[in-house]
Amino acid sequence: MPGVHRYLPLSEAERAAMLKAAGFSRPEDLFASIPEKLRLQGALDVPGPLAEQDLLADLQGRAAENRVPDPRAQFLGGGAYRHYQPSIVDHLLQRTEFYSSYTPYQPEISQGTLQAVFEFQTLICQLTGLDLSNASMYEGASSVAEAILMADRLTPKKKTLLSDRLHPEYARTVRTYLAHIGIEVQTFGHRADGTADPQQAAQALASGASSVVVQHPNFFGCVEEVETLAAVTKQAGAQLIVAMNEPISLGLLKAPGAQGADIVVGEAQGLGVPLSFGGPYLGFLAARAAFMRHMPGRLVGEAKDVDGRRGYVLTLSTREQHIRREKATSNICTNEGLCALTASIYMATLGKTGMMDLARHNHAKAAYARTRLEAAPGLQFPDPAPFFNEFVVRLKGSAADAVRRLAEKGILAGLPLARYFPDRDRDLLVCVTEMNPKAEIDRLADEIGRL
Amino acid sequence: METRNKRPPEGLLFEVSRPGRRGADLPPLDVPADGKHHLDRRFRRDDIEGFPELSEVDVVRHYTRLSRLNYAIDLGLYPLGSCTMKYNPKINEKVARLPGFADLHPQTPEELAQGALRLMHSLERALAAICGMDRFTLQPAAGAQGEQVGILMVRAYHQDKGNPRQVVLIPDSAHGTNPASAHLAGYKVEQIPSNARGCVDVEALRKRVAEDVAVLMLTNPNTLGVFEGEIETVARVLHDRGALLYMDGANLNAFVGQARPGDMGVDVHHLNLHKTFSTPHGGGGPGAGPVGVKKILEPYLPAPVIERDGDTLRLRHDRPKSVGRIRSFHGNFGMFVRAWAFILAHGPDGLKRMSETAVLNANYLRARLQKTWHLPYDEPSLHEVVFSDKNLEATGVRTLDVAKRLMDYGFHPPTIYFPLIVKGALMIEPTETESREELDLFVDALMAIDAEARQDPDLVKNAPHTTPIRRLDETTAARQPVLRWTPGQKEK
Amino acid sequence: MSADGIYPDDLKYTKEHEWLEARSGRATVGVTHYAQAELGDIVYVELPQVGAAVVAGEAFGTVESVKAVSELFAPASGTVAEVNGALTDKPDVVNRDPYGDGWMIRITMADPKEVDGLMTAAQYRKYIEDEAN
To answer: In total, how many domains does chain C have?
Structure first.
């Protein structure tokens, strides 16, 4: 029956009455302001309508077309990390007051969101060892670009130095963002152990730069020497930006802020946000106090109401696009609010000891996998620096072929580096988390050894 | 003053934290401790200072109580102009959480992720059909990123022709993200005035368009809710001088199924899945801002693009003219699932009925309110209508006060003080998912507030009175920002 | 907004609502009562460094309220000789005492005669009255 639809409450009688009350005779007249020749003739070429049960069946069928091995036998990292999401996280996220609410521009009826974001900002500061955090950004790569722009606002030198150990998609995104801003992007190299080379950074810094960007752990899994890089960067009057892909590492690694980083930025998907084929994810940005008025994105601050009650409110809004327009610190408006809430609930649930234990477990499992693979003949480890939960193993033959063969045995062995670096076709980036039981790690090692 | 519940307000996680508590237990470690790969002390931290320690019960209570301090679309109307706060279907939440989607790693080899790629491809094609465009990219994470990508593609197009041009024209009624995004693409922004009807002044445009203008960014319907009736002329004026037309599609809910941007001369536009296509606002995000292009801009689309290779769908990375990437991985896939389900639920007739109802609801509100509330532009409204506080001038009550008083009536206020071309603007967009009773209640509330403003203005000026918190001292919050909790910082 | 505010007769005024007090080649600059009333509670003032050059009619800084930003325009050209550092912590002084403790910068003027082109108090009062209508 036309007009009856589960999301459209008006009955035919109500429509007719409202149309009349609004001064129209026919429904078509509602669109009289659209020139006749622009009016669409005929129906849209889209499928549907489907009742719920058919809709569910259709999407279930689609989901089932993704033929992946059991998650316990997947060893993929490379910018997104599989961690166990405690059941209360999704349960609390599904409270409609959180997910169906709007941006908290009216603080009096948004204190739930605002307090949760204030807590998120604090948790990120505690993990990174820095003074300030914003309310979230889109995801890791664009957040790194925004961090570079921010650093240049504080120390304008119109140049940034990127470690060549950065996630290639991050490097690409940075170049796209900076293409027309007048900030030069220069890359500096790495050492034999796979870490960013502070000497090369120092050399490149000699001609001036506003920021140095390193990833920690880097794309190849290596833990970076943040203190040395910070010293070299500071000496040259630039800002050290530490980009991160795997926030769980901060349960084990020293806070980069305590090691001299000026900005810590990147991807917080690892904090309980579902993998969901790449998004929605969670960009985070933390910085020293000096950056406060240069921060992109929303900021929640503490405030008192007329009765003296403590509350929270979006503040320092004059940085943002809706006020400063083309002179804004960023164009960002909609961010990743619900993902920030996901991460907050996750961090609150794990808590201090949970985060530290989880990080220890991840490292131990990856170390076990590494030890088992080192025992297999013919394998090499081209980036031998210490790692957290990812490392590169060089196989005897093509890594892409190996992945395909092992997939047939129900194992996703890792990320073939040839996807980004065609000349590294034997190299496989293996990630191990608390989701991989010993038995699966053993099976991975055995199968790779057998290739 | 009414008696409030005696329970003290919700403390921060760090204030209710107690040493030794934990909310999650890990399985026992089933591998040896790290042995020779043990991470040296110099890399390790001993503590996460100030990090909370809570039991599972503590966490559940904390967030459950916090949630009750929020208003949400499932509680009532959000008449926010240009936000399209419509109902978020629950089946969408269910399908987005199917393990085949939610647990799928983005680095999964293509051959094993065909279901996800097919969904994305189907969504792209559906959006192209709805908008009359040739191709879509789903990469942008929000409308603003969509604008940025759109303008980057415009620039690449011009660059390819030998002259990137220097200027982006933007109407004075535009959303702030428009100039901010244009700036990020390296362009200078110039304003184009609106005419007396609130639409783009075509003569002013004609005078200004020259070889240095790359593109005009037009919102249609504009931020007054009025259709830019001269859009074809606008397109012609631009195209005659080699410039392009970008459409901000935030207001697409007004004419889905009735007209298509592609037929209006639009070369590139974004749309918002978290507006027109019902994905939840989540308290600030996530969203998604897909961008549609005509063939001329196809080569410049962000990489990778999804293409057919026989029966298989592939992600094609080698796109030599692509503007590059604006984010990692493929886009906010979880929102694609929801939007696709929304389209399937409606079908072609449902989508047409959706926009018709959205426009009907807005015009119904307009008719009932315009005798009392000042209408700055008497042009036909589509899906939203803009009033102002002009009729209340003598009372001293302003738009801000009206907004705050509406909360006492159980509504979220409309968008206020936007667009900038209307002083004291109240932008009202009901969307199609509102019942007549809800709309009538909203009208009654606004009429009551008008009466209050005349009879008891202080009641309105000091509103809200019944919300969990009352007006906040935003001035002090901006003068002495406290942006995080620190140990030793206590609630007084 | 009418001309009810205080507009000292010994100062000069600009169309962008700045005031200037000239004394032996030095000019003190701030914003008028009208400006601070229009802006509302001022939360932040961004001023140039000592030694910076300012050009008449061009922006030398910004003043922010919670919801708006306005540029500050130099009434005369010259070099910044002094900056009111107290405004960083106490921007509200501009609201309370715009002509006294709320002063913003002192300029060593390049051309003291530029001052002659500015409005007198009477002219400024008329200007803001006309603006209101």
So the answer is: 1
Query: B75-100 pLDDT, tens per residue?
Result: 999 999 999 999 999 999 999 999 99
The low-confidence residues of chain A, meaning pLDDT below 50, are 1
One domain, residues B371 and B282 = no
CATH of the domain at C109: 2.40.50.100
Note the CATH number of domain A71-84+357-450.
Answer: 3.90.1150.10
- Cβ–Cβ gap B478/C43 under 8 Å: yes
- C3 pLDDT exceeds 60? no
Measured CA to CA, the distance from residue B346 to residue C109 in angstroms comes to 69
Find the CATH number of the domain harbouring B442. 3.90.1150.10
C43 in contact with B at a CB cutoff of 8 Å?
yes
Neighbour tally for B206: CB within 10 Å? 15
Percent of chain C residues topping a pLDDT of 90: 82
Distance CA C77, CA C110 (A): 6
CB contact under 8 A, B152 and A404: no
Cβ pair B354, B130 in contact under 8 A: no
B258 and B113, same structural domain?
A: yes
> Which residues make beta-bridge pairs with C108?
C26, C79
Which phi and psi (to 5°) does residue B117 adopt? -65, -40
Handedness of CA B396, B402, B404, B410 (dihedral sign): positive
What integer pLDDT is reported at residue A152 of this predicted model?
96
What is the least distance, in Å, from the CA of A236 to any CA of chain B?
24
Whether the complex's predicted ipTM is more than 0.90 is answered with: yes
- Domain annotation covers residue C5: no
Contact predicate B381/A30, CB 8 Å: no
So what's the pLDDT on residue A326? 78
Q: C88 vs chain B: nearest CA distance in angstroms?
A: 9
Predicted TM-score (pTM) of this structure: 0.95
| A153: chain C residues, CB-CB within 8 Å | none
B207 and B279 within one domain? yes
Query: What is the pLDDT, as a whole number, of residue A58?
Result: 97
In chain A, where does the domain assigned CATH 3.90.1150.10 lie?
71-84+357-450
| Beta-carbon separation of C43 and B417 below 8 A | no
Q: Which residues of A385-404 are buried (b: 16+ CB within 10 A; e: fewer)?
A: bbbbbbbbbbbeebbbebbe
Is B95 within a domain? yes
pLDDT digits (tens, 9 = 90+) for B213-230: 999 999 999 999 999 999
Burial class of residue C111 in the structure, from the number of CB atoms within 10 Å of its CB (0-12 exposed, 13-18 middle, 19+ buried): exposed
- Which residue range(s) make up the domain with B378? 348-476
- Residue B487 located in a structural domain: no
Q: Does residue B307 sit in the same domain as residue B410?
A: no
CATH of domain A87-346: 3.40.640.10
- Tell whether the model's pLDDT for residue C1 goes beyond 50: no
Domain-embedded: residue C68: yes
